[in-house]
Amino acid sequence: MKKWIYKHKLLIACMILLVLIKVVWVAWGCWSIGSQQTEKNDILQRRNWLIGKIVVEPRQLLKEMPRGLGLQFQGEWALYSCSMLSKALYNISILYPETKQKSINTIDSLIQIVKSPELRLYDKIRWEEDPLDSIGGNKSHISYLSHLAWMIGNYRKIGGCDKYNALHDSLCEAMNRRILTSECMNLPTYPGEDIYIPDMLVAIVALSDYAQLNNEKYQNTVNCWIQRAKSEWIDSETGLLRSFLPLDGDISVKSPIKGSYSTLNTYYLTQIDPEFAKEQYTHLKEVFLIDSWLTGFKEYPDGSGFLGMDVDAGPIIFGLSPSGTAFGIGCATYFNDIDLRNDLLKTAEIAGHTIVWNNKRHYLLADIAIVGEAITLAMKTTCK
Asked: Is the pTM of this model over 0.85?
């Protein structure tokens, strides 16, 4: 009996010790949270780690994506890793101008990776044609094309040379033409599937960036899409932009509203229409925000999914959406919602557990999902 009590006490002591270690580790990881200037060292060290993991041979990058995802999602996650790191580098060059040339050079490398046959393969398989070789055609390819165009836009906006101008022209011409050909102005990511509004918004952001660089060319398309979004694609129950539309654009068909999609929609809208984005941010917090000891955004409005897995949101724990919470950091940063931003970053630290080594820093979970680290860095460096 005494031996059992001793073992029981030892187990409790070990558990208490582990909790104390975690508390101290989280406190240490959160010490720099406050503003983008006080976070400078944290931001640059996370940039360094991401560059080392993502700016590699395309096949190596794809191997870094979880094998269990399958070819399609490995390709998607690799694409997102590159585009979100590109956006983070653009942001960092604005926050810290001395980093601009490094950002330009690195985005250049990322564009080359995304252009590679290896990265295009997942989209080629789904559409049964290569997205770049068929640029004059009519099939959608909207997700791949829009991320590549968005990256080139960021490259050009911070002073990159004109080496990608012709490709940028053809990408945006193709997206604009295909959007206008669609009666509902929306295109599917893959054949036979619903329209994913966040994927469409990347295209609208890319066209908006292009318009800034080219005397407002395609700005009318951007404006028309936003007006239709406000008048036709708002969910009546939540006030949020819809997450999905049927392939035929039938707005009478109800579809679920997801936290990961709504936070990403709101973030993209900050890049196009800040006033509309502000309205969406208000609704977003009303519907999805959990403000407690673990602050974050839910994946489902009713808080279901206490424990689960979603290929877009990630592992859902306590109903919280990992990717929704990460994208929420970008929204809170843009709107200078400092208290919420700090709370979200603390949640990221509790869940992610920062590791620092050799002037590089990353969340421990990034060893499993690099894309989450890239998204979080892009979001926490968001600037107007």
From this structure: yes
